[in-house]
Amino acid sequence: MKQHILIGAFIALAAVAATVVSVNSHAQPLQDKKLEFPQASPAASFKQRVGTTDVEVEYSRPSVKGRKIFGGLVPFGEVWRTGANAATKVTFSTDLKFGGQAIPAGTYALVTIPGATEWTVILNKATDGWGSYAYDQKNDLVRVTAKPVALQDMVETLTIGTHELRDESALLTIDWDKTRVAVKLELDLVKTLVPEIKAAMSAEGKKPYLAAAMFYYEHDLDLKQALTWIDAALAEQPDGLWIVYRKGLILAKLGDKEGALAAARQSLAMAEKKGGSLGDEYKRLNQALIARLQ
Questions:
Q1: Which of 28, 72, 96, 205 has a CA that sits 20 to 30 A from residue 12's CA?
Q2: What is the model's pTM?
């Protein structure tokens, strides 16, 4: 009888131990899991190509949450990190002009001094600071001024972005609450690209005839050279109805109305034969060019 009792007790203890092991095996991942809370000002980044330059911004995005922002939470006349948490960083992959000031490619802290009627926008070389506490004016690369503009619709969460994109310019914008501040970014693409185009055209291998021709066309450079390159592109791809259309654009800018009409009509006939969405697109484009030339 005692032996049976001992065996029963042993089995009971084993069951308890197994239960403890089972509970611990399930509880352990919960203990190891990192506890995370939502950020008051979530981190964000964006990247935008402007011409041949990549513009990238890393920042944290606070929200209005019913507060008075400029002249309140963000005082006028004081240095602001232009975001929250770590310094807001902006990176330019090439040299450019920032608010009319020439700056080299690199990464900078974007710092501002908001004002009721005018802001100071700063690129500072010290990018590892937290907020504006470690800001030192001696590290400023450039300071430019910008006028705040009232937005019709409120922007709840701080948004830094780009607007009015062109081949050679864009606006870097800071939007929050009902305020927008913009700084113009400018690139000298002609100075940069023309030597590179000439080098590519004199080198061995495939040449960018179409892209080079359209760059010259769009920037009012040597249009006769652009026409030579567009003809070379057509020699490589005679069925390129989009190339024929662009030849019409170049001829029109050269003042050769009859030549431009002939090219537009040729491209239109090719588009009608091609059909589909591509054909429909170039039917519309060529019809518009013909109407403009007649």
A1: 28
A2: 0.77
Instruction: Report how far residue 96's alpha carbon sits from residue 188's, in angstroms, rounded to the nearest whole number.
Output: 7
The enclosing H or E element of 19 equals helix 2-32
* CA distances for 8 relative to 3, 11, 16, 20, angstroms: 9, 5, 13, 19
Distances (CA, A) of 254 to 81, 96, 222, 279: 51, 31, 10, 26
Q: In the chain, what are the domains?
A: 43-186 (no CATH), 189-293 (1.25.40.10)
Give every strand in the sheet of 43-50, ordered side by side.
Answer: 43-50, 53-60, 89-92, 106-113, 119-124, 140-146
How is residue 166 annotated by DSSP? -
Query: Distance between CA atoms of 76 and 88, rounded to whole angstroms?
Result: 19
In this structure, what DSSP letter does residue 26 have? Answer: H
- For 57-103, what is each residue's pLDDT tens digit? 999 999 999 999 999 999 999 999 999 999 999 999 999 999 999 99
Q: Name the residue with tokens 């001094």.
A: 113
- What are the tens digits of pLDDT across the range 128-139? 877 677 789 999
CB neighbours of residue 159 within 10 Å:
15
